[in-house]
From TrEMBL:
Lineage: superkingdom: Bacteria
Species, as recorded: Mucilaginibacter pineti
Annotated Gene3D superfamilies: Uracil-DNA glycosylase-like domain
SUPFAM superfamilies: Uracil-DNA glycosylase-like
Protein name, as recorded: Uracil-DNA glycosylase-like domain-containing protein
Positions of the Uracil-DNA glycosylase-like domain: 48-227
Residue spans crossing the bilayer: none
Length: 233
């Protein structure tokens, strides 16, 4: 029986950006850049997605260096993969604040199994980007941070949202992590491509952890209120 797990793993394995990028920007593909992300993410999806229960999409921005670039699973850093998902991980142990928030929210929702039975988290752009800053340090870069980059990856974004929808996700509502540039881009794209009937945007986990951590519970409640509207028995 072909399950969501089978289809998601196949989608991840085919991810490859073959276009040109603006000078100084590098692509980040966890499924080709290291020896552990494919294995650990496959274990994750087989554990939580080995069925065909209807699910809704949640789209973040693009993978970050310390989260899905390590594990191959969106908003799941190595610490959460080991301690929350109980899946072995042999790569570098990194910490991503966004992942910490998402798993606090997931636990408030009712637990990991119940949340992933209803939702699938990925990104508007399924691969990430980095640049080297003025201090010589490699840092995350978002697909919308440079107009030339956004233009370069635009067809790639469309292609891979279409491929993800073909996996069988619901299209009545898509949730968007990010109420700024990510939301604006996704709404404009959706107006053109008609992927979803409605987009519901929520503040990005990184924004919450960086600027609103003292009121984190308020945002968790807001997330839960939005997600509970689409629960499928």
């Amino acid at each position: 029986m072909n399950t969501f797990a089978d289809r998601i793993i196949a989608f991840n394995n085919q991810l490859e950006y073959k276009g040109a990028l603006p000078a100084g920007i590098s692509i980040m593909n966890p499924f080709k850049d290291n020896d552990f992300a494919t294995d650990v993410s496959s274990q994750f999806y087989r554990k939580y997605y080995s069925d065909n229960h209807p699910r809704h999409l949640i789209l973040g921005i693009n993978p970050g260096r310390f989260g899905s670039a390590m594990t191959g699973v969106s908003f799941t850093d190595p610490k959460r993969m080991i301690n929350q998902c109980h899946i072995p991980y042999n790569g570098p142990i990194t910490h991503e604040p966004s992942s910490e928030y998402v798993y606090d929210m997931i636990n408030a929702f009712g637990g990991i199994s119940e949340f992933y039975r209803q939702f699938y988290i990925h990104s508007v752009c399924p691969l990430g980007f980095t640049i080297t800053n003025d201090r010589g340090k490699e840092v995350n870069y978002n697909y919308y941070d440079k107009p030339e980059l956004q233009k370069a990856v635009y067809p790639f974004i469309i292609e891979n949202i279409e491929k993800q929808l073909q996996l069988g996700f619901e299209t009545d509502i898509c949730f968007c992590f990010g109420t700024g540039k990510n939301e604006a881009f996704l709404r404009k794209l959706n107006n053109e491509q008609k992927f979803f009937k409605q987009i519901i945007a929520l503040e990005h986990p990184r924004f919450i952890m960086q600027y609103k951590s003292k009121t984190k519970q308020h945002y968790i409640a807001k997330y839960l209120e939005a997600f509970n509207k689409v629960i499928i028995d």
